[in-house]
Write a structure and sequence with these properties.
- By secondary structure, the protein is mainly alpha-helical.
- It has 2 helices and no strands.
Length: about 60
């Protein structure tokens, strides 16, 4: 896993947190929740290739 990926996830988390607070304070709670959900989906999509590599490595490890 690359350190760049961790920084990208942190940046997305920070941006989503700021947007959530701004939207929540302005009374747009529905949009704040949608922003949070979109941020989670983006991070999961970024992690899918890494999880695939992990599963492949575990399969190779278990295959004697």
């Amino acid at each position: 896993m690359e350190i760049v990926l961790i920084f990208k996830i942190g940046a997305i988390g920070l941006a989503v947190a700021v947007l959530h607070q701004v939207l929540s304070r302005s009374g747009r709670d529905e949009y704040a929740m949608l922003t949070t959900m979109a941020g989670v989906i983006v991070v999961v999509m970024m992690l899918l290739p890494e999880l695939s590599d992990l599963i492949t490595a575990l399969k190779k490890l278990m295959d004697f």
